[in-house]
Amino acid sequence: LMVVTTESMEPTLNVGDLIYVKGVAPTEIKVGDIVTFKPPANYMGGTLVTHRVVEVSYDANEVYFRTKGDNNPSIDPWLIKPSDIIGVQKAALPGVGRVFLWIHTPLGLAVAGLLLVVYLFWPNIKENLGGFHEP
After folding, report:
1. Do the Cβ atoms of 129 and 33 come closer than 8 Å?
2. 89 and 114 share a domain?
3. 48 and 10, same structural domain?
4. N or C: which end of the chain has fewer CB within 10 A?
């Protein structure tokens, strides 16, 4: 499962969509498929990318893929090797990933931390709250 974090695939995939990516054999990937992959190390800082395959090419018995974001004006400047592909997008749940994106914000981390503390100390809190009675 992956969360879409940029607008590069809009309107097909929007920021906050949760996508299911399944590994497949390179021979099963065709033009039009949406793939998640590791771009070359000097691009995107190692962040995974989800774009559409726009070309499949062969060179010396090796297959390569060209990709493009649906919302991007040009084709990505790299060739993707099969070993860099994580998988093909098989399903999407619109907006479901927004929760995961929110948790990575400062406010989301604070709320998650507070909930964790309350959960861990709930037996003590409950016991202390139960100890106060009106005369």
Report:
1. no
2. no
3. yes
4. C
**64 shares a domain with 29:** yes
Cβ atoms 84, 67 nearer than 8 A: no
- Give the rounded distance of the alpha carbon of 131 from its chain centre: 47
Is there a contact between 99 and 16 (Cβ–Cβ < 8 Å)?
no
Residue type, 126: K
Count the domains in the chain.
2
Secondary structure class of 35 (helix, strand, coil) = strand
Q: In angstroms, what CA-CA distances link 92 with 12, 16, 111?
A: 10, 10, 27
| Paired strand residues for 85 | 37
| Nearest of 110, 107, 7, 104 to residue 50 by alpha carbon | 7
Question: Which residue range(s) make up the domain with 104?
Answer: 98-130
Residues in the chain: 135
Model confidence at 133, in pLDDT bands (50, 70, 90)? low
pLDDT digits (tens, 9 = 90+) for 52-74: 999 999 888 889 999 999 999 99
Within 8 A by CB and 6+ apart from 122, the residues are none
